[in-house]
Amino acid sequence: MKQLINSLQGDKVIWSFVALLALFSFMPVFSASSNLAYIGHGTGNTLGYLLKHLAHICIGFLIIYWVHKVPYHYFRAISKVGLPVVWILLGYTLVKGTVVAGANASRWIQVPFIGITFQTSTLASIVLLIFVARYLSKKRETPVTFKSSLWELWLPVFVTLMFILPANLSTSALIFTMVLMLTFIGNYPLKYIGLIVGAGIVSLTFFIFVAKAFPDAFPNRVDTWISRIDSFTSDKPNEDDYQIEKAKIAIASGGVYGLGPGKSVQKNFLPQSSSDFIYAIIVEEYGLIGGIGVLLMYLLLFFRFIVASHKANSLFGKLLVAGLGFPMIFQAIVNMGVAVELLPVTGQPLPLISSGGSSIWMTCIALGIIISVTKKDEEIAQEKAEKESRDETLKRMIDEQIAKENAIEEEGLYSIEDKTANPMAAVLNKK
User: Fold this and answer.
1) Is 175 part of a structural domain of the chain?
2) What are the pLDDT digits (tens) for 161-187?
3) Residue 282 and residue 411 share a domain
4) CA angle, 342 as apex, 181 and 270 as ends, to 5°?
5) Rg, the chain, Cα only
6) For residue 269, which phi and psi values (nearest 5 degrees)?
7) The whole model's pTM is what?
């Protein structure tokens, strides 16, 4: 185990926080999966779901390990090549989205021959944010014009969001917000950002009007997220009210110390208790202390991302850490905000805690890239320390050699002076 830990490169604090969140996830997932177990096979045995979650976490850590070994500057080219591939996957998902648990889920596709469902928007967000970081770092030395950035930066961004928006408003809004944040960090002109925000609001409003006027034109989740916004902003009853009501009951039942691990009652009634609403189950079982503890873990991880971004030796590295790390924290805050009804129901999982394979794996890819950036910083710092050590050793050797030569010269000088001072000795020596 010690050798394994020593083989891990990069920021050890990030490794530690990720491991703690992953380890903590087993108890809530094991407890909250009872609802799925009753629906799935009627026995209530959640051991299978726990083992499945264990497999997802183990594969996730292998992904982090493999990805963090790749030099992060390689992802520049990968993002440029991967963006068209992502558009194809998003288009296929929009048209051929699969059905999960009997419900329409056009955000997902099923991987052939494996049977694993995969949410393509999570992969799209990673590739797009790397692409934006690449553009901003490339344009650092040249002045940015709105016309050139409109084609080189914003067209790919809006094309990607156009594929995601009809099926998943929350993810597209989160990605758009992160792109804006990244452009702000990358010193993109504020007046241009304001124009883009205005264009985004107008485009979204127009899309909503078209979707309401022609509901049959979008046979996907448009009606779902529009109704969620309507129900959140009004008092009209909605099926999401049931989920929010059960989540608030769970949170209220937890109190300060909670009911105890595995003793949740609302997990038997709350849909998606092991994924979208797992935070409510955490508060019910571990109380306010557990809920605040999870929140603090994410905030500490957020602070560590800021430190890693600040330490990065290149602008691309700084933007990469910010662009891939900050969305995890914001996604966690959104998940918690939904559970306490601060936000409308969005379907965003709690990173590294909620059950689900593809969401965990995509988070682990992002974490692997972030750790790769910190690994490069450590390598540079180590090379600098080794160079300083070599220079110091060389300087010491030179000083010793100079001192030795000076001593020899002084000894020779004294010998000559002695011979000159005693002429008889010099004559005898000559004979």
Assistant:
1) yes
2) 988 888 777 788 889 999 999 999 988
3) no
4) 120
5) 30
6) -120, -20
7) 0.82
